[in-house]
Amino acid sequence: MKPLLLCACLAVLTTTHAAVQMPSIFTDHMVLQRDLPVPVWGKASPGEEVTVEFAGQKKTTKADATGKWMVKLDPLAANAEPQVLKAGNVTIQDVLVGEVWLASGQSNMEWEMQMKPDSAADIPKATHPNLRLIEVPKTVALSPQDDVKTAWTRSSPESAASFSAIGYYFGVRLQEELKVPIGIILSAWGGTRIEPWTSLEGFEAVPALKDFTADIRSKLPGSDSYRAVNEKYLAAIESWTQAARAALGEKQGVPAMPAQPAVLPLNQVTPTSLYNAMIHPLVPYAFRGAIWYQGESNHAEGFAYTEKTKALLASWRSVFQQPNLPFYFVQIAPWQYGAEDVEILPQFWQAQRECLNIPNTGMTTISDIGEVSDIHPAHKKEVARRLSLWALAKNYGHSEIDPNGPLYASHATEGSSIRVKFDHAASGLASRDGKPLTHFEIAGKDGIFHPAEAKIDGSSVLISAAAVPEPRRARFAWSKLAIANLMNKDGLPATAFHTHWPVDPDMGDNLARGCTWESSDKNTYGWDTGLTDGSYAEFPPNCYATSNTDTFPKHVTIDLKKAQPLNLVRVGVPTVGSTKTIAVSVSTDGKTFREVGRHVFPLGKAERADLNFPDAEARYIRLTYLDHHEKLSAEYPNTFAFTTEVEAYRMK
Q1: Where are the alpha helices (DSSP H) in 179-303?
Q2: What are the backbone dihedrals phi and psi of residue 628, each rounded to the nearest 5 degrees, phi first?
Q3: Beta strand 49-54 with 57-62: parallel, antiparallel or unpaired?
Q4: CATH architecture of the domain with residue range 516-649
């Protein structure tokens, strides 16, 4: 064979049999999940045969037309002896089999061992050969990525120092209890919201987020929605160009150019950006469950967070092919949050508690170890221990453990007192510091709360106050600064509660919550996705707004899904914007509306107005913005119409 021909043949062979590649989640020192099928995957030349060998198993497959391949190893038994994983030409050393957990969230999950004195003191003792750690680097993307550069390492003083304190302590705790290798995958980023950690498909799985999802798609380059929006924009530009030329020819002023549609920015607060870059590269790695410490950046949006947590779980459980993936999260700690209303954080705590209704979730309460002067409380080891109680109780057979602290169950009036009963108090209730119980309040029919004396009586607490001889309502730890002392005898703190929030028994259910709406003047700046989410937050996307066209009146119509009797509509406006007069109308068919009340809101003041009216059958509620203040608030154009929330009730 001639030399040139031989070189050509070698080139063809080199091209058609490229080296097998595996994503960076597969490196020396890794841990594979026991007792579950274990996906192993990577890339090769299209059609190339790839053989994977591990622990006596040998699986062969072929790369598809795009070069992707995957096999699934049969479930493996735990093994602390280092083994070798082979895939084609790739050899991975020191592979253990045990339990793997994903640790994710914002700064309190990311917080490193070396950053607080109490955890830093444990760094010299961090040599645990069978505890393996891996951290996903901080990066963003607008489309799902297949890999991210990272590597596993053994736990040592050097590797643990810069690793998540909660992730490390959680892993140590499981290893001590289970006596098997443990792997912790850290994917966290300080200051981030929940939306960036969620896929588009996750958002689409939650009906309450329909408009939010549509807004994202309309701003995502490459999506059909984005193309449609921009095709419409290009047509508008063409019409504008003709009109502008005509105006110049007639020596008239040129009309304003149409505004360019928004596009998703590429940063760590953009919805889906961290899922794409920091979660999807792990797919479909097998692991047991996830621990989650996040919420500070979403804390002002109330029950919208519950819906977004559903979306996060729909996202992760789908791509990792685990519909029952365990998910244990931390209820965020008390903190001052500047001059913010003291009730905003307790309302968020209730939204987090609502997440317990999502199957296979657990909530760790840490209100007793918060630090109101520090949003990063130091006691990460105890947080991790409490998270581990959920794993031990729900995943590892320790049925004797109740990982819950006391949760409000019911209340009843007993003369001049209110008795509050608690779930998860079988061990008994106690005062953490031996002092009288703190942060209990009661109110009468007027709804004005007064500090109350609280006494433990079995699994309930009896509350009274001389200032409230006829009590109707009770609340506990209902302040962002509340570090209360009620706990169960297992040492777990009670969760804040309010007997009349979010559902006020005197008012009934909010019939508008989670309902969809249509706007006569759609906002294009991301402000119109939160009209009935239970949040009175003033910022997008939780605050609703029309666009800033100068045509009034403009309106928004809420669909209650079915006709039902109403007699009260509550409307809130923010401090920002120049919203003035809002008229409320109702309809059964969405065509003929009857006004039932209106309210004039002041400028620059957050206010809620209750519009009461005789029982009216209605499926649709319309808010009509009749006018606006001439002055500006927060420098927004006064032609925006802002609304923080709409509630609808039938008062008995």
Answers
A1: 200-204, 210-218, 224-249, 273-274
A2: -150, 160
A3: antiparallel
A4: Sandwich (2.60)
Q: Phi first, then psi: give them for residue 470, nearest 5 degrees.
A: -125, 75
Find the Cα–Cα–Cα–Cα dihedral 232, 237, 243, 245, rounded to 10°: -160
Give the integer Cα–Cα distance in Å for 456 and 460.
6
Which strand (E) or helix (H) includes residue 567?
strand 554-573
| pLDDT tens profile 346-380 | 999 999 999 999 999 999 999 999 999 999 999 99
Q: How far apart are CA 350 and CA 312, in angstroms?
A: 18
Find the length of the chain: 652
Dist CA 403 CA 249 (whole Å): 77
Domain ranges of the chain: 407-498, 516-649
Q: In terms of Cα–Cα distance, which of 361, 384, 383 is closest to 313?
A: 361
Of 385, 377, 403, the closest CA to residue 170 belongs to 385
pTM metric for this prediction: 0.89
524-528 long-range contacts (CB < 8 A, ≥24 apart) are: 524/259, 524/261, 524/262, 525/262, 526/215, 526/262, 527/640, 527/642, 528/211, 528/215
> Mean pLDDT throughout 504-511?
87
Report residue 363 as tokens.
């909530």
Determine the straight-line distance between the first and last CA of the chain, rounded to whole angstroms. 97
**CA proximity to 581, closest of 597, 564, 563:** 597
pLDDT in tens, 192-232: 999 999 999 999 999 989 888 999 999 999 999 999 999 99
